Amino acid sequence: MSQSVLDQLLEMGFDKQRAQLAVKKSDGLPDAMDWLEKNQDTDLEELLAEEEAGPSVSKVEGDVVAMSLVCNECNKKFRSQREAEFHANKSGHSDFAESTEEIAPLTAEEKQQRLAELREKVKAKRANQAVVDKEEQKRNEVRFVFWNNLIF
């Protein structure tokens, strides 16, 4: 498959060496095109030097089982795909890799602490929403009085 991807990239007019690097560092035509777009301003010698220094692995190789995911943009680790997707939506990061490093499960104390933090956030959000609701209710009352006085 990588040869056909390379052929397609060459037909599109990409430089042969850049196209070969893109095929090595990606998984399919869309990924290769994304890689080429991200690295279009990077000097070819610099890209080749990075390649010789060692590839940036995005998937775990061999029979090793991935135990977590890592955001390559901020190095934050995630226990599940769902957590990584949430992080991607929240931060806009899109470069993740599988990791063999297992994230230790939360202790009972850590769970209690996180639960308390979440409860505080919910409490603060509800208080803020109550203020917004009161302001909106006042605006609606003013509109109602205005329109009633205008009509009658």
TrEMBL record:
<dbReference type="GO" id="GO:0005737">
    <property type="term" value="C:cytoplasm"/>
</dbReference>
<dbReference type="GO" id="GO:0005634">
    <property type="term" value="C:nucleus"/>
</dbReference>
<dbReference type="InterPro" id="IPR015940">
    <property type="entry name" value="UBA"/>
</dbReference>
<dbReference type="Pfam" id="PF22562">
    <property type="entry name" value="UBA_7"/>
</dbReference>
<feature type="domain" description="UBA">
    <location>
        <begin position="1"/>
        <end position="39"/>
    </location>
</feature>
<dbReference type="InterPro" id="IPR009060">
    <property type="entry name" value="UBA-like_sf"/>
</dbReference>
<protein>
    <recommendedName>
        <fullName>UBA domain-containing protein</fullName>
    </recommendedName>
</protein>
<dbReference type="Pfam" id="PF24560">
    <property type="entry name" value="zf-C2H2_OTU1_C"/>
</dbReference>
<feature type="region of interest" description="Disordered">
    <location>
        <begin position="85"/>
        <end position="106"/>
    </location>
</feature>
<dbReference type="InterPro" id="IPR013087">
    <property type="entry name" value="Znf_C2H2_type"/>
</dbReference>
<dbReference type="GO" id="GO:0031397">
    <property type="term" value="P:negative regulation of protein ubiquitination"/>
</dbReference>
<feature type="compositionally biased region" description="Basic and acidic residues">
    <location>
        <begin position="85"/>
        <end position="96"/>
    </location>
</feature>
<dbReference type="GO" id="GO:1903094">
    <property type="term" value="P:negative regulation of protein K48-linked deubiquitination"/>
</dbReference>
<dbReference type="InterPro" id="IPR057766">
    <property type="entry name" value="Znf-C2H2_OTU1-like_C"/>
</dbReference>
<dbReference type="GO" id="GO:0032435">
    <property type="term" value="P:negative regulation of proteasomal ubiquitin-dependent protein catabolic process"/>
</dbReference>
<dbReference type="GO" id="GO:0036435">
    <property type="term" value="F:K48-linked polyubiquitin modification-dependent protein binding"/>
</dbReference>
